[in-house]
Write a structure and sequence with these properties.
116 residues, mainly beta, seven-stranded mixed sheet
Length: 116
């Protein structure tokens, strides 16, 4: 089994920054990518950013140039640096782990609230 534990959410004013962390533990050998999804009230969960263990990263168009995903292999941790935050970034952010092509593992979620 795999455990994903997020931290770093909170309340920030528009234009501010936050960094989310996701620590993975357990049987992580089959995970080939990790990423961040978010879900706002009344909306579907959407991919924000993902990073493959081969190193390539991809981002949602809405966050390109503002968010950066990175990983620390030694700590089995993935980070999401979020800059220039906007009120529309407000959501619960979930860390995910992918095996092959399926996102099978999820953290408990962390709330990010951006005020005007």
């Amino acid at each position: 089994q795999v455990q994903l534990v997020e931290s770093g959410g909170g309340l920030v004013q528009a234009g501010g920054s936050l960094r989310l962390s996701c620590a993975a533990s357990g049987n992580i050998n089959n995970i080939n990518a990790m990423g961040w999804y978010r879900q706002a009230p009344g909306k579907q969960r959407e991919l924000v950013a993902a990073i493959a263990f081969g190193g390539s990263a991809n981002y949602a168009d809405s966050v390109k140039g503002r968010f950066t995903i990175s990983r620390d292999n030694a700590k089995n941790t993935v980070y999401l640096q979020m800059n220039s935050l906007k009120p529309e970034d407000t959501a619960v952010y979930y860390c995910g782990g992918r095996t092959r092509l399926t996102w099978n593992y999820w953290g408990q979620g962390t709330q990010v609230t951006v005020s005007t």
